[in-house]
Design a protein that fits this description.
The complex is a heterodimer. Chain A is 38% helix and 33% strand. In chain A, the strands form 2 sheets. In chain A, strands 1-2-3-5-4 form a 5-stranded mixed β-barrel. A two-stranded antiparallel ribbon of chain A has the order 6-7. Chain B is mainly alpha-helical. Helices cover 55% and strands 2% of the residues of chain B. The longest helix of chain B is centred in the last third of the chain and has 26 residues. Chain B is globular and about 65 Å long. The chains are: A alpha+beta, B mainly alpha. Strand 5 of chain A pairs parallel with strand 1 of chain B.
């Protein structure tokens, strides 16, 4: 019965791949909060970030909170932003400790998209429950 | 400077570029349903599971670990082909017919990745060659939320496909009788 050893082996591979990403991934990336913490070092450096939540600010300067950090962005004041919006941006680090954005995308319908995505999830779960049952003795799903 | 908005509830700005990111799961499922007909229909459920798997594996956990930077890296790479291959292989082992389950699930995953490759991200993106490279790449044609606009036509097309299936099934039965 090779099924159980194969499951354990694959689980180890999957966990190892995740661990490798968590270890190596951040090494090649300058995060926005690292950049604004040392602006003299990173001045002019281009920073890109996705799905940052706006937690405060107004006018031209807005604060986003990526992973519990605070990063100030300079954004065109004509944009209708408000706290709670999720934005992706691209910009340059300035020596005063903020990022001047030159491209912004506002994820206005993010919440709606996530909500809509729950529908197929529940339909598939329900359908799966109707089509398959778990055979505990043999440790696999079989058609009903 | 370049700004973009999404969908019909967008706002202003300079040089609007209609580019997007992750299509919603309804779009993925509807496209899967449209493509899977005829003899392959018996694998539709597994194919649909494969089609939503990359987002279920990554978006759902990230919702709970949104404050953890390294967790985002840990979880985020499971939207890449090689890690997904191993995850699908693992899932297939929980089915009686391993090869069939793997085939249907992985085909669904590949279709999901194919459609996601059309998206555009300003930050992040998909690591197609992970663990060999952390380079991201995408066609950059649509922003993530744009796919919501595709739902009505896809739904219509799905109903049409289903209608054709019923028509041909009925015709076959009539001929046999």
């Amino acid at each position: 019965m090779l099924r159980i050893p194969a499951i354990i082996f694959l689980l180890i591979i999957i966990i190892a791949l995740g661990a490798y990403a968590a270890w190596q991934g951040p090494r090649g990336e300058i995060t926005s909060w690292e950049a604004v913490a040392a602006p003299e070092k990173y001045e002019g450096r281009e920073i890109k970030a996705g799905y940052n939540r706006i937690i405060g600010g107004g006018g031209s300067y807005w604060t986003v909170g990526p992973f519990g950090h605070y990063v100030v962005l300079k954004i065109d004041p004509r944009l209708s932003l408000e706290p709670g919006n999720f934005i992706s941006y691209q910009g340059q680090v300035r020596k005063d400790g903020y990022i001047e954005t030159n491209e912004i995308y506002i994820h206005k319908e993010r919440g709606f998209k996530y909500l809509v995505s729950l529908i197929p999830l529940f339909v598939i779960l329900f359908w799966f429950g109707r089509e398959y049952r778990f055979n505990q003795r043999k440790f696999y799903f079989e058609e009903k | 400077m370049k700004y973009s908005h999404c969908g019909t509830r967008g706002f202003l700005v300079r040089r609007v570029s209609f580019k997007t990111t992750m299509p919603d799961l309804i779009s993925h499922c509807l496209v899967s349903r449209i493509l899977f007909f005829g003899k392959f229909k018996k694998y539709l459920l597994l194919f649909l599971i494969g089609a939503i798997l990359p987002d279920v594996l990554t978006r759902a956990p990230l919702f709970f670990f949104s404050g953890c930077y390294r967790c985002a890296w840990w979880i985020g790479v499971f939207h890449s082909p090689l890690p997904l291959f191993f995850v699908v292989l693992l899932f297939s082992l929980f089915f009686k017919r391993v090869k069939e389950a793997f085939g249907a699930l992985f085909l669904g995953v590949l279709l999901h990745l194919f459609f996601d490759s059309f998206q555009r991200h300003l930050g992040g993106g998909y690591y197609w060659l992970f663990p060999f490279s952390f380079q991201t790449a995408e066609w950059g044609l649509i922003w993530p939320e744009t796919s919501l606009n595709f739902i009505p036509p896809l739904l219509l097309l799905t109903i049409l496909v289903y209608g054709f299936e019923l028509y041909f099934k009925g015709r076959k039965i009539r001929r046999e009788n």
